[in-house]
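Most newcomers find our protein records easier to grasp once they have seen one. To make this concrete, we reproduce a full record directly below:

…
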Amino acid sequence: MDQKLARIKNPVFHEFLNKYVDLCNPAKIFVCTDSPEDIQYIRNSAIKNKEEARLAVEGHTVHFDGYYDQARDKKMTKYLLTKDVNLGPEINAMDREEGIKEIHSILKNIMAGHELYINFFCLGPKNSIFSIFCVQLTDSSYVAHSEDLLYRRGYEEFVRAGKNGRFFKLVHSEGALVEAGMGLQVSKNVDKRRVYINLRDETIYSANTQYGGNTIGLKKLSMRLAINRASKEGWLTEHMFVMGVHGPGKERVSYFTGAFPSMCGKTSTAMVEGETIVGDDIAYLRKIDGKIRAVNVEKGMFGIIDGINAADDHLQWKALQNPCEVIISNVLVTEAGEAYWNGKDGKCPTKGINYSGDWFQGKKDKDGNPITPSHKNARFTVALKTMDNVDPKLDDPEGVEVKGIIYGGRDSDTWVPVEEALDWVHGIITKGASLESETTAAILGKEGVRVFNPMSNLDFLSISIGRYIEDNLNFAAGLDTPPRIFSVNYFLKDKDGEFLNHKNDKRIWLKWMELRVHGEVDAIKTPTGFIPKYQDLKKLFKETLNKDYLEEDYAKQFAVRVPENLAKVDRLIKIYKERVIDTPQIVFKTLGKVRQNLLNV
């Protein structure tokens, strides 16, 4: 251990490490370098410590989180800020000194009897202007294993950086453990679950939880740190996929980023048949030589497994059926050691073991709620290189040139299936900053409630909403041809409540956007943006899906819904007046102009 640490010459790292080793008091310490032996030690530890168990498929393991530890804890995820900093009512924050005092008291001796794993990672490709170094301290071998699948290893990067390397600091402990199904160990004291973010020191604390969204510090937690750093330095951290859309003849690849709230088609778009994926979740964007370029922060996927089946998700399905390294969490495990999740092909087993323990059909929890075979937020963790559609530029240190930016929400009655903004400012305000998503009955028990979520990033903002919008507006300054901005909506319904599009139609919207960024198809200008011409879509439907596209369907899908759009504009103006403390005036001016255009129809 000492020799491994001695190779790192950064005094800030050693001060940080010594402080939290003394505070958390682990029984053992393991330093994970980039070597295969060290990586294997982590994998073996996850089995030995009973945080994972092997499944029937070679390379597959299962992990359970506690019954009440199945999602991000929004209430107890807080920024630690000084009293003079006000980011607005949408940002969950507390006094910095009080938060540090509390989390230090929780972390005191929390690792007694546990092994501490010290892991080094790089956010973004290595040897790149995009690279951000991170060190993760955790006593969870499951968390360490997950991060190794999701992120590029960074021990040698720390060694090369010498004394001056900046890095994000991540401290996590699962806390005391209790036995769950299959003898797997889960966090016991979830009532003391805390996730605190110290922006000043770029440090994240997480305690008494195992669920990945609270513990995999390099994911949305580090994303919050990166948003803050990016705002200071003039680049962007976005909750976006990065994908390659292949043009006519397949030789041309145009790269798009896309931001979609949960349950709005983000992953299914990034994984759409015929295109290639660079990343499915988080992107860094920088201006380089007059172009906007983007990288995937990660190298793996922490995806929702619910509903994945062979017909609709065959690329992900393949990884979940074939021998490869996958961690599957919070699903049902049968007597044969096979994983079953809600919506999986085949008959649902009548019994098995899941995160609630022994499971049988009809089982309910103590509150009388039905317990499904797997949790609706059950996940799978896998390296992207396992996927057949991974783009060859996944690890390119220069990133990819962004030709288009897509914003998508769940909207039953307003947005058309695909539309291009009039220009950059119009797109950022009327597409990105106007993003809403309707809730579904399956999630909240009440359908159709519109949730305001600018750029699909509201939950993760570490700066005020107004400043965030300003950062996006200013980002295209100095560019001759900034990326075009689009909106998509896969959930438009007719008067009878039936969807107006098939789920595979998104392939057509992507192909149309690809042609637009190269100026190869014209469009129709409407009060809200540019929409496709019928003949162009008809041709694309036939070429791509071998499907006839009727003009009457086009008319229903692309009609300008004036009352609904007016209601949306008024709703957004009200939100920005009442809930955002520093809304740029250009937001009101742009929305007001859209309103006037609609009234003139």
User: Anything to note?
Assistant: Confidence is low (pLDDT under 50) at residues 441-445. The two ends are 71 Å apart (CA to CA). DSSP finds 18 helices and 33 strands in the chain. The CA atoms of residues 129 and 586 lie 32 Å apart.
